[in-house]
């Protein structure tokens, strides 16, 4: 089991580095929260590997700190995706401030409902609730992308990969919480969907905007201003 853990870490680190490399080529300006998430994820994984010999309490504390940071960045990334997709949407969308307010209220409600003496159980339940909320936001994003006049294929891939990862995390956490005999199955679901998520993000980000079906900034400006006079 430990060998599989290290194999998963190695594959995850490799894909994580590929995602960061693709972002560094220029996409980090367009997707700053994706870039922040990828960097935080890399740092979190390296720290977890380095602290394998530390006490269980220290490992758990650092794990949940990193989970909180990553969950916040996921919310920020999804809200930023919704803002980007709204540019091409036909219908009126929910404003950013309401999405942020609802997200904060849901986080506070989840903490109030699940807090208890067992930190791991409490944080697992909160993390599951946050993933569900992020998945709902991702569905809103997908509805905007599907209804758009010119769907942004890169944004669709980023959204789809994130939705896959969130769904896998929800399923895995529920399996872990429901029975001890399902802990390995839950972990396998989480790890598999997480690696697929990184692969999809890498495939989306490695392409140039024109290849990914994303209108360039020059084309956007030209479309808004109209063609030059003859």
What would you note in describing this structure?
- The protein has helices at residues 2-30, 32-50, 56-86, 96-114, 119-147, 153-178, 183-205, 217-225.
- With 230 residues, it is mainly α.
- The longest helix is centred in the N-terminal third of the chain and has 31 residues, at 56-86.
- Mean pLDDT is 80; it is low at 216-230.
The structure class reads: mainly alpha
Tally of helical segments: 8
What is the general shape?
Answer: globular
The chain-level mean pLDDT equals: 80
Query: Roughly how many Å is the radius of gyration?
Result: 19 Å
Distance between the termini: 70 Å
Q: Can you count the beta strands?
A: 0
Note the main sheet.
none
Low-confidence stretches: 216-230
Layout of helices and strands:
Elements: H1 2-30, H2 32-50, H3 56-86, H4 96-114, H5 119-147, H6 153-178, H7 183-205, H8 217-225
Helix pairs in contact: 1-2, 1-7, 2-3, 3-4, 3-5, 4-5, 5-6, 6-7
Short description:
The chain has 230 residues and is an all-alpha fold. Helix content is 80%, strand content 0%. The protein is globular, with a radius of gyration of 19 Å.
Key structural traits:
230 residues, mainly alpha, disordered C terminus
